[in-house]
Target: Acyl carrier protein phosphodiesterase
Amino acid sequence: MNFLAHTFLSGDDDDIKIGNLMGDFIKGNLDNEQNSLINKGIINGIILHRAIDSFTDMHPVVRKSIHRLQPKYHKCAGIIVDVFYDHLLAKNFSDYSLISLPVYSQSFYRLIQERKNEMPVNIERLIHSMVTRDWFNGYATSQGIEWSLKGISQRLRFVSGIENATEDLKRDYDLYLEEFRIFFPELISYCQDILAKQQNAKI
Model:
């Protein structure tokens, strides 16, 4: 899953949201000396991030989405599906949230700006771009998805062609939407169980 889904799946705990956003930027064992300086709530968010990635990678419905793209995009197919699913979440946000996407987005942007000093330095550019370009609302548009994929392709060390994948999304849109609607409620339930266990561990 991509940034919008990771954030949304964090529930209402700000520490969990921060940790989930940081997930791709914190490597290695969370018990090591460097990571021991991170507060427990943020650590729980990183744990949730990793659990989301594992659940998603192993899910048979997600693998159907990936398989459709693999002949053309090879090892980048999973990256593309992550972006496609964020688009489908953004486009259908009211199906999963009582808060509108614009209101949700601005609330999250305020949070990460207020607490950016708690996050790794190498995430600062991402935060600035996310806020100034309004990534979350952009995900709901084909132009926003194309821009996101183009940005990812520029960071890869090889020619991937993923910046053109919006055409694949348009061609098989109904298939991706059907798969997302099967998968995402299961992921929500999975994350709710993890969050409940983390909350009970605090008591």
The mean pLDDT is 92. Residues 3-202 form one domain. Residues 76 and 158 are 11 Å apart (CA to CA).
